[in-house]
Amino acid sequence: MSFWRDRQFRHFYVFLMGVLAALTVFAAVIWMMYGRLSKEIYLSHNRSVVSSLLEAGVERNVIARAFAADASSPEGEALVEMMGIGEDAETAFLPGIAGMQSKMAVFMTGFVMSLWLVQMAGAGFFFSDREKVYAEAEKMVRKFTEGDFSGNLSYLEEGRLHQLFGSVDHLAKALAAQGEMTGRAKAFLKDTISDISHQLKTPLAALEMYCEIILAEPENTETVIKFTKKASEALIRMEQLILALLKITRLDAGAVIFEKKDHPVVDVVKRGIEELAVRAQREGKEILLSGQDRVSVNCDLQWTGEALGNLVKNALDYTREGAKIEISWEELAGAVRISVIDDGEGIGEEMFHHMFKRFYRVGKGNGIGLGLPLAKSVMEGQGGMLSAHNIPGGGAAFVMTFPIKLKEL
Q: Are 272 and 309 in contact (CB under 8 A)?
């Protein structure tokens, strides 16, 4: 009886039960009235017959025996038929019956009409109240279809109808959230295209200028070699920018499937710095490793190595000659932490809120402003976390935190 949870249905059901109870009471009253009227007719007829017989001189004992008899004779039945009060007699001609029928007809007609009016009024009230609920729901759904999700359907009461309203309301909220997400995605795409256009504008302008210089002095070998080298550097920068954008876009779209396995942290670190060791040596900087070989981490080796490499590259970009960059790792309760620490100038207070934004660069750094956002996306995609803070006395630290994979018991 799930409909019983609906308040309006409960009220209507109680109303119908009341109507049935009234019918039952009415039937009992009719039965009592019928019995009382039948008794009155019977007694009145008996009194009339007895009085008539006494006036005709019939003895009392004869009359008493006649009323006590319970059998009929053919002669008696023939006399009754001859008198017109037998089985074929009209009810209206029977003594007292017509009056009883008239009273019963008036009473039943009044009761049935009253009951019919009450039932129609109750049903009308129920359906009218229901119609208001449907009209309100239709009005709200129409707003939803027009994109207005500010209101909500009433589903705080119990019952199937309000459960349906709740489902529609949840669907509307999901559509609103999806629309908002789509709007943010469009805004993000617009900003990304604007950033890409801005980032490509500089190397493209430089490339165009280099080509014009080369075309203007084709016989000057030194000039041709010099600006050909610059054009090559501009092309490399554009390639790095495009590749980085493709990677971070795939990460944001959830198109990257991380192949997470247990790897020694030292292997992850070596994977991350293998292409940066030569640069560090060329710039007179030193990369130091500190950690136990037995510590392992559950991660995707390729992507995590690239994320770590971006942190080391960022440290190389913002430190002077002779700087030391330390990569340390340790296993804590429930997590493995890898830290990249430099002895540079540290992170400015105003940079903390922007350093993980795309294309954000400090000063005249050599980067394109995508290394840190990419590293953050890689960490979050694997269920980890990337954070940053300053070191007392100077320098910055970027910390990669990996949750330890729980072993099945």
A: yes
Query: 10 Å Cβ neighbour count for 187?
Result: 10
Separation between Cα atoms, residue 276 and residue 173, nearest integer Å: 49
CA 371, 372, 377, 378 dihedral sign is: positive
DSSP labels, 108-157? HHHHHHHHHHHHHHHHHHHHHHHHHHHHHHHHHHHHHHTT--SS-----S
What number of H helices and E strands is found in the chain?
A: 10, 7
Residue 148 to residues 156, 175, 186, 187: CA-CA distances in angstroms?
21, 11, 20, 20
Per-residue pLDDT of the chain (409 residues; tens, 9 = 90+): 555 556 666 666 777 777 778 778 777 777 777 777 777 777 777 777 778 878 888 788 877 877 777 777 777 767 766 766 666 656 655 656 666 667 677 777 877 787 777 777 777 777 777 777 777 777 777 777 777 767 776 655 556 666 677 777 777 777 777 778 778 778 877 777 777 777 778 778 888 888 888 888 888 888 888 889 888 888 887 887 888 878 877 887 778 899 999 999 999 999 999 989 999 999 999 999 999 989 999 999 999 999 999 999 999 988 999 999 999 999 988 899 999 999 988 888 778 778 888 777 765 555 677 889 899 999 999 999 999 999 988 899 999 999 986 443 3
Residue type, 205: A
**Rounded to an integer, what distance in angstroms lies between the CA atom of residue 115 and that of residue 23?**
8
pTM listed for this prediction: 0.55
> How far apart (Å, rounded) are the C-alpha atoms in residues 379 and 304?
7
Q: What does the block give as tokens for 333?
A: 């309760």
The answer to whether 126 touches 15, Cβ cutoff 8 Å, is: yes
Give the Cβ contact number of residue 186 at 10 Å: 10
- Do 358 and 192 contact (CB within 8 A), yes or no? yes
CA distance 55 to 74: 26
**Amino acid of residue 156:** L
Residues 6+ apart with CB under 8 A from 318: 342, 344, 345, 362, 363, 365, 396
Structural domains of the chain sorted by starting position, each given as residue range(s) with its CATH number in brackets: 2-145 (no CATH), 175-252 (1.10.287.130), 261-403 (3.30.565.10)
